[in-house]
Amino acid sequence: MKEVLIAENAGFCFGVKRAMNMAQKELEEKKDISVYALGPLIHNKQAVEKYENMGLITIDKIDDVNQNLESEMIIRSHGVPKITYDEAESKSIDIVDTTCPFVKKIHYIVSKGEEENKSIILLGDSNHPEVIGINGWCKDKAIIFKELEEVKDYDFDKTKEYLVVSQTTMNEKNFDNIIEYLETLGLKLSVKNTICSATRVRQQAARELSQKVDVMVVIGGKHSSNTQKLVKICSEIVDTISIETKEDMKDVDFSGYNKIGVTAGASTPDWIIEEAIEFLKTC
């Protein structure tokens, strides 16, 4: 039997667990109304499907809410731009707001910074819903960078004051490298490290475990930003396999590995992790 080691802090983070619990409560208590989610509740296909089987209706835009029926709309854990709240209010759509409190804090920081006429630098993936949401709280004016090379190519205005925030799931090493570079430019710079503490601890635990095993298995959605960052961190140290469920491992040859490490993204349900671990023990 293989030795399987599990990283600390693998699986649901506080924000995701909170969102899932809030959504479950609505589905259980509001069986007589339509419960919508604006975008996938979390970045895990299996978990979303489970809730959709309970009655959750996932939509892409507010116009998809059937206003002829009694309904409510869940704002997912990633958060949304301010304009979404304004639109929901104008259409008299009741909202259940499951935005992660750590993301909400960034909304407040950039909104206040924009009011104070600061230029917002937002570090993260411009296509990620969390980043889109944050940008929407500073009138979509944020300068968004994902990698250090992009920062080096940008022409900064030294007469302006810049406020730096980041996506909660950003790789901390990338964040530190970018800040270190920005500080060499002589800018008027305020830095808020808004990487979630759970993300920081999860990434460090994955890094440490990767140094003790022959291979790492990272469990989580293919579209989950924090999961893919774990994949990148682990793969820089040891052979790494990225999976969504145990089914993805059925054709993987583990014969050359004696010690297997496991970690999981913040949107990965416990039952998926447990099934994967049981599978690995039988390899």
From TrEMBL:
Put simply, this protein is called 4-hydroxy-3-methylbut-2-enyl diphosphate reductase
Please provide the Gene Ontology terms (biological process) for this protein: dimethylallyl diphosphate biosynthetic process; isopentenyl diphosphate biosynthetic process, methylerythritol 4-phosphate pathway; terpenoid biosynthetic process
Family that this chain belongs to = Belongs to the IspH family.
- Relay the cofactor remark from the entry: Binds 1 [4Fe-4S] cluster per subunit.
| Residues that hold [4Fe-4S] cluster according to the record | 13, 100, 196
Q: Where does isopentenyl diphosphate bind?
A: 43, 78, 128, 224-226, 267
The organism named in the record is: Peptostreptococcus russellii
The record, for Gene3D superfamilies, names:
3.40.50.11270, 4-hydroxy-3-methylbut-2-enyl diphosphate reductase, catalytic domain
